[in-house]
Amino acid sequence: MEEDELFQITKKLLSFNHDLLQKFEDTKESGVAGDFYQEIKPFSEQLNESLKIWSEGAKLWIRNCRPKNLHVNQIESVMEQLEMISVQAFFPQTSRTHFLNTVHSVEYVLKKLISEIEKECKDTK
User: Fold this and answer.
1) What's the number of CA atoms in the CB half-sphere (13 Å) around residue 106?
2) Which residues touch 100 (CB under 8 Å, ≥6 apart)?
3) Average pLDDT, whole number, for the chain?
4) What does the alpha-carbon distance between residue 80 and residue 82 come to, in Å, rounded to a whole number?
5) What pLDDT sits at residue 51?
6) Of the candidates 74, 50, 48, which has an alpha carbon nearest to the alpha carbon of residue 61?
7) How many angstroms separate the CA atoms of 14 and 97, rounded?
8) Could you give the number of structural domains in the chain?
9) How far is 60 from 65, CA to CA, in rounded Å?
């Protein structure tokens, strides 16, 4: 996977993360759980497809470029966290504190990866 492609899919995951936060807030406000077949399953499938491609590329990039403060286990953690909140966002009984902490954790790692890719690209030019 090229750096530009990894950069773009990481940005896409950031967008998914933002969408999940918005969905969580909307669900909390309405108090109505999302429909599994109409909302939850399609969203999760789309996210998981992107996650699979992203994780392989991100892990390979980390192994090759060895950025400081960014490790393969963080990529695996982001995958697990996004999979988890992609379902939790649709249920009003989801803990706000736990959900928000997870969203912020995911955002931190994704933004860190983006900044490291940008830095790597500048260093090689």
Assistant:
1) 28
2) 21
3) 94
4) 6
5) 96
6) 74
7) 19
8) 1
9) 9
Q: What is the pLDDT of residues 56-91, one digit of tens each?
A: 999 999 999 999 899 999 999 999 999 999 999 999
What percentage of the chain carries pLDDT values higher than 70? 96
CATH code for the domain of 42: 1.20.120.440
> Quick one: tokens of 106?
């995911």
Largest CA distance in the chain: 51
Report the distance separating Cα 5 and Cα 8, nearest Å.
5
Domain that includes residue 45, residue range: 3-124
How far, in Å, CA of 28 to CA of 34, rounded?
A: 11
- Please give the Cα distance from 82 to 87 (Å, whole number): 9
